[in-house]
Amino acid sequence: AQKITQTQPGMFVQEKEAVTLDCTYDTSDQSYGLFWYKQPSSGEMIFLIYQGSYDEQNATEGRYSLNFQKARKSANLVISASQLGGSAMYFCAMRVPQGGSEKLVFGKGTKLTVNP
Amino acid sequence: ETGVTQSPTHLIKTRGQQVTLRCSSQSGHNTVSWYQQALGQGPQFIFQYYREEENGRGNFPPRFSGLQFPNYSSELNVNALELDDSALYLCASSRTPYQPQHFGDGTRLSIL
Q1: Which helix (H) or strand (E) holds A98?
Q2: Tens-digit pLDDT profile for residues A92-108
Q3: 3-state secondary structure of B63
Q4: Which of B33, B104, B108 shows the shortest C-beta gap to A103?
Q5: Is the peptide bond before B8 cis (omega within 30 degrees of 0)?
Q6: What pLDDT is stored for residue B23 in this prediction?
Q7: Which of these, B79, B89, B85, lies nearest to B112 by C-alpha position?
Q8: CA distance B96 to chain A (A)
Q9: Which chain A residues contact residue B38 at CB under 8 A?
Q10: B36 to A38, B58, B78, B85, B106: CA distances (angstroms)
């Protein structure tokens, strides 16, 4: 069964420093997609970055980059220059087939606290 | 701003009652998925609707049901509420079942 594992319940980082949030995944599918979402206390899931299993380059979106290591089945999120507004829950998710559609399978999340 | 709105923001019910949660998607988004997020957990897939038909279902009992309407609005209905149904319910929409999903702010449901 498809599964996402996030082993860091909480992380702390100083403002303007970089931080890496870990994510490992398990799937037998050859084609899949990996996402990172940010969830502030308000509840909305905010899309950050996407990596397809066949993408040869690591995805980047502004201050966010995804360190994709396919053989190790890891998809770590790297945030450069953390900002105070970046304190939130961060979820890794994988797109998996579900009947005639697709669903997202999420990890348990990492709570990131950005300190001034 | 994702263009996906959910109502109400918060809701309190008692065990055994029924509840309807609503979601309004962006124009042109024919697919809506619902997720349940218990406290301290990641969201779990409940079901997906595509062009007003159920298009995939997670491991949730039949008392969780849904509707999707032609005007890009949808509903999640839960009957015979249980204490474990207390959670944040998230709606996500996309143009097709295979395109990125855009999430709303969610409805926080508390069961007393």
Answers
A1: strand A88-98
A2: 999 988 777 788 999 99
A3: coil
A4: B33
A5: yes
A6: 97
A7: B85
A8: 9
A9: none
A10: 16, 10, 12, 9, 9
State yes or no: pLDDT of B56 exceeds 70.
yes
What pLDDT does A9 receive? 95
Question: How many angstroms away from the CA of A80 is the closest CA of chain B?
Answer: 23
Question: Distance of CA A10 to CAs A34, A79, A108, A110, A113, Å?
Answer: 21, 15, 11, 5, 8
Q: How confident is the model at residue B1 (pLDDT cuts 50, 70, 90)?
A: low
SS3 state at B33:
strand
Of B56, B100, B106, the CB nearest to A100: B56
Which residue, among A25, A93, A111, has the nearest Cα to B39 in the 3D structure?
A111
Residues within 8 A of A (CB atoms), B 51-90 only? 55-58, 88, 90
Nearest to B8 by CA among B109, B112, B111: B109
Contact state of A103 with B103 under an 8 Å Cβ cutoff: no
Q: Which residues pair with B34 in a beta bridge?
A: B47, B91
- Sign, CA torsion A98/A101/A102/A103: negative
Q: Which residues contact A71 (CB under 8 A, 6 or more apart)?
A: none
User: Rounded to whole angstroms, how far apart are CA atoms B88 and A43?
Assistant: 8
Q: Which two tokens stand for residue B33?
A: 């998925």
Q: Cβ of B102 under 8 Å from any chain A Cβ? A: yes
Task: Sort strands B107-111 and B10-13 into parallel, antiparallel or unpaired.
Answer: parallel
